[in-house]
Write a structure and sequence with these properties.
Layout (H helix, E strand, L loop, with lengths): L2 H19 L4 H31 L15 H12 L8 H26 L9 H32 L10 H11 L9 H30 L6 H30 L19 H12 L8 H29 L1
Helix pairs in contact: 1-4, 2-4, 2-10, 4-5, 5-7, 7-8, 8-10
Length: about 325
């Protein structure tokens, strides 16, 4: 079965399942997920730009004279000086599309998978495990649907303003299809799925764990705004740290064949696959190289996950109120 057909069958099955099993439509979760993705992306895009620039730099992130980017503050000031403040939102259009698509599919799928798993006898005893499994499946579905936009976003962020290759989303898509191949849109999908499945699973599991802990400590039976913010922050920080090397490998695989757009950023990282990427990174940059850009990534993960869950919970509550 071809991928688009399989995806269509999946959503037809899950939509039918939701209608039969619950009075609450899955469309509410899809809408809340889309709104959550939009809000979070708009607020946190500069952190993503810094993270990607760090990940793609082969030279050390330190006070080394050969390194272009040496710290978060230095990178922000350098980007503003060389490319203007708008560069901190470089790639924002595909990133925004990516976030909306990903948020929609992720929360919709999570709701569906959770309801399916709840049909298993005695599953309530394994609630956090259920959250992990449903989250892993939801993250994988969201990634597959949104991955081409992630590749376009990465290339737009990676290119230098002085050696601009792409003029926008449509131009980048047509250039990739004309000069490379459609397979390029899915370069790095394997390490992404290896990263995103446990990452999203851990996010949902940690979020459930921390929200429950907050409720026990405060005797609050509902998931409040403050509960979502604190629990989302902790969940994002822990989950991102565990799976970070795969995130770095994904970004480096997505720029293969894009040497002409990386002039002025230092040595170009060349690899042929996931294992080769990890091997070369360790060989040339040491084990610490696998965690290059971890600090801005942790900051981003902490902030974005907090906003992601909080916006989702608040929009979902608003939709229930309006219904």
């Amino acid at each position: 079965m071809r991928f688009p057909v399989a995806c269509a069958v999946f959503f037809q099955m899950t939509m039918g399942f939701s209608v039969q099993k619950t009075a609450e439509p899955n469309s509410d979760h899809a809408i809340a997920g889309a709104a959550s993705g939009f809000i979070t992306r708009f607020l946190c895009q500069p952190l993503d730009v810094i993270k990607i620039r760090f990940q793609l730099q082969v030279e050390p992130i330190s006070k080394c004279h050969i390194s272009k980017y040496r710290s978060m503050s230095q990178a922000v000031l350098l980007i503003i000086r060389e490319e203007g403040s708008a560069a901190l939102w470089k790639g924002h259009v595909p990133a925004q599309l990516l976030s909306i698509v990903y948020g929609t599919v992720q929360f919709y799928s999570y709701n569906v998978f959770t309801k399916m798993l709840q049909q298993v006898p005695q599953i309530e005893e394994w609630r956090h495990t259920t959250q992990f499994v449903a989250g892993a499946g939801a993250g994988s579905m969201g990634t597959i649907f949104s991955f081409p936009l992630d590749t376009v976003r990465t290339r737009l962020v990676a290119q230098s303003s002085n050696h601009q290759v792409y003029n926008g989303v449509l131009h980048s898509c047509s250039s990739i299809l004309r000069q490379e191949s459609s397979k390029v849109f899915f370069s790095g999908l394997l390490p992404t799925l290896l990263q995103i499945a446990p990452h999203t699973g851990l996010q949902f599991a940690f979020y459930g764990l921390f929200t429950d802990f907050y409720k026990r400590c405060t005797s609050d039976t509902n998931t409040s705004f403050y509960n979502s913010m604190l629990s989302g922050s902790a969940a994002g920080l822990l989950a991102k740290t565990v799976v970070y090397p795969f995130d770095l490998a994904r970004k480096r695989l997505q720029i293969q064949g894009f040497q002409h757009g990386r002039k002025g950023f230092g040595k170009f990282f060349q690899c042929s696959g996931l294992l080769d990427c990890l091997r070369i990174t360790v060989k040339e940059e040491g084990v610490r190289g696998l965690f290059k850009g971890l600090t801005p990534s942790q900051v981003k993960a902490t902030v974005t996950t907090a906003f992601h869950f909080t916006a989702y919970e608040q929009v979902l509550l608003l939709l229930k109120t309006l219904r």
